[in-house]
Amino acid sequence: MAYDFDLVVLGGGPAGEKGAAQAAYFGKRVAVVERAPEPGGACVHTGTLPSKTLREAALVLSGYRSRELYGIRLELDRGQATPRLLSRKDAVRRLEVERIRWNLDRHSVQLFQGLGSFVDTHTLEICPVGKSPQRISADVVMIATGSEPFRPDNVPFDDGDVDDSDTILGLDRLPDRLCILGAGVIGSEYACMFAALGVQVTLVEGRDDLLPFLDREFSERLRQAMASLGIDVRMGVPYKSVVRADAKTIKTELADGSTILTDKLLYCAGRNGRTRELHLDRVGLAADKRGAIAVDANYRTTVPNIYAVGDCIGFPALASTSMEQARVAMVHAFGLGYKQKLGGLLPYGIYTIPEVSYVGMTEEEAKKANIDIAVGRAFYRDNARGKIVGDRDGVIKLLFEKKTRKLIGVHCLGDRATELVHIGQAIMTLGGGVDTLIEMVFNYPTLSETYKYAAYEALGQLGTAAEDGGST
User: Fold this and answer.
1) Where are the alpha helices (DSSP H) in 197-293?
2) What whole-number distance in Å separates Cα of residue 305 and Cα of residue 466?
């Protein structure tokens, strides 16, 4: 049977764009169906890029980075802060949308605007707003519809001062007081951003540990950094109710009986796969209770010609991994003999203030696996570039397996942590270790130098290469 396209992608976010481009690069006829007026998905319009842009704008507008470096106290014009924050976010969004459209055009990918859903395993119906539906067919279909904020019934989202992680980006004013329910990655990032702007932030989390997937030492360092920003971090206390107290106040009651009075509330405790409107039942598929679709190692569903990637398949739900999942899926779908799998070392970046990033094992994981390790640390306060940028709290922590001397874990906190982590990722990918870092020459002055000094500290626990027969 002749189909309209070799591939139709449902969703024009990071995964959809990269998967479409990968297939088109190898000569496939490709279409992307995007429900929003512009491609980019939550990553570009309501999530990753807007929130990170707001973070950078907040640091600039608040003068946060200059406070200790130059001893200058800057006063934020709160009346001008919100429009300036939003204008910068919108400028970055427009540029990224233009880049995505250019990328799709240069690969001859056809873009359809409208809500796409399944008619059968090879046929999709597209319903544009205000226009008649149309149907297109494809040999292969890839679902890349992303995710949406989880909204529990006991939080009044119909109140204009109660937001989720999508709607907060349309804030009409900078609040004096903000309560954030959920200290996951998104909640922690927004807590730091608003605190840097002088907002009184209360961060509430039902779990006992802040970002428990982090190395425990770095979870605690981040908690202390948040406290120094003035954030009231309340761990191990679930919320009980959220109600309107008066015309200007939202009241949040916690399980321990305490109450929090704020101007606005941000709920960000989880996201669901955006799969409800796909009519998966028509093709014999079903999502779990959080909207996630099950896939195999090649990102193929139980229907052989239908693949799913990105947030709609669940963990890790990162833009970086989603893009690579899409590329792997399309190589498998069309037998391209190119990219067969994701790299085994997935970096995690958290854009709090300060940034936190890691790759590989945590110290707790190494000990649980009975791996004898040497640990090296280096602090920004002892680094020339760290002194220049005024970051006295930054730190890098390296874990080496004693038996092999290989690097097995990298943990960074501080300015440019999400960039620095990739040095360690590359060394780990190539099987390098402490001797690699000792031999390397780093530019001076750079934060990257911290790798060498952390390696030197670990070397004291490992002994020199000559002493134990290792290579230099």
Assistant:
1) 216-228
2) 56
| CA 17 – CA 352 distance, rounded (Å) | 27
Q: Whole-model pTM?
A: 0.90
Please compute the mean of the pLDDT values over residues 457-468 and round it to a whole number.
73
How far is it, in rounded angstroms, from Cα 21 to Cα 117? 21
| Rounded CA Rg of the chain | 24
Band (pLDDT 50/70/90 cuts) for residue 264 is very high
**399 CB neighbour count, 10 Å cutoff:** 25
Residue 287: its pLDDT value, please?
Answer: 95
Give 203-218 pLDDT, tens digit per residue: 999 999 999 999 999 9
Spatial strand order in the sheet of 200-205:
162-164, 264-267, 177-181, 200-205, 232-235
Angstrom distance (rounded) from CA 331 to CA 339: 6
Provide the residue type at 26 as one letter: F
For the chain, domains (ranges, CATH) are: 5-149+272-333 (3.50.50.60), 162-269 (3.50.50.60), 354-468 (3.30.390.30)
Q: How confident is the model at residue 379 (pLDDT cuts 50, 70, 90)?
A: very high
Where does 210-327 show beta strands of DSSP type E?
232-235, 239-246, 249-254, 259-262, 264-267, 271-273, 306-308
Query: Looking at residue 290, what is its pLDDT?
Result: 92
